[in-house]
UniProtKB/TrEMBL annotation:
The lineage of its organism: Eukaryota, Fungi, Dikarya, Ascomycota, Saccharomycotina. InterPro entries: Hydroxyisourate_hydrolase, Transthyretin/HIU_hydrolase_d, Transthyretin/HIU_hydrolase_sf. Keywords: Hydrolase, Purine metabolism. This is 5-hydroxyisourate hydrolase. The keyword Hydrolase applies. It comes from the Eukaryota. Catalyzes the hydrolysis of 5-hydroxyisourate (HIU) to 2-oxo-4-hydroxy-4-carboxy-5-ureidoimidazoline (OHCU). GO terms for molecular function: hydroxyisourate hydrolase activity. Belongs to the transthyretin family. 5-hydroxyisourate hydrolase subfamily.
Length: 121
């Protein structure tokens, strides 16, 4: 089995600043339900490095499947700075496939009423 790694980061695109202390949850998506496999808060650079995830019950990312990162932006950020947002959280699903790529980086560029994401490196 191949081990895959995932990292992410969040940037407030209105202010051009990284967002620290944002709760992020990593899920395995199945036909029956979503299984939370890891969690972590972003660091001072707005990142969750691949080695910093706190995995639940010895879960690892060892096979191809659909995964998702849930960014808890309202409770972790907008409520604290007393600003409105359209999104209570943002879910970004992605597919890990068997390939020569073993690391997946998921960036989130965020403002109060919009966001974008892409495949990072």
């Amino acid at each position: 089995m191949t081990d895959y790694t995932v990292s992410c980061h969040i940037l407030n695109s209105n202010k051009g600043l990284p967002l620290s202390d944002i709760s992020c949850e990593l899920y395995l998506i199945t036909d029956k339900n979503n299984i939370k496999i890891a969690q972590q808060k972003t660091n001072k650079d707005g990142r969750v490095p691949k080695e910093s995830w706190e995995f639940v019950e010895d879960h690892k990312i060892t096979h191809t499947n659909t995964y998702m990162i849930r960014f808890q932006i309202k409770s972790s950020y907008y409520d604290l700075i007393n600003e409105d947002t359209l999104y209570p959280y943002i879910d970004i699903p992605f597919i890990i496939k068997n390939s020569t790529v073993h690391h997946y980086h998921i960036p989130l560029l965020l403002n109060n009423f919009g966001y974008t994401t892409y495949r990072g490196s």
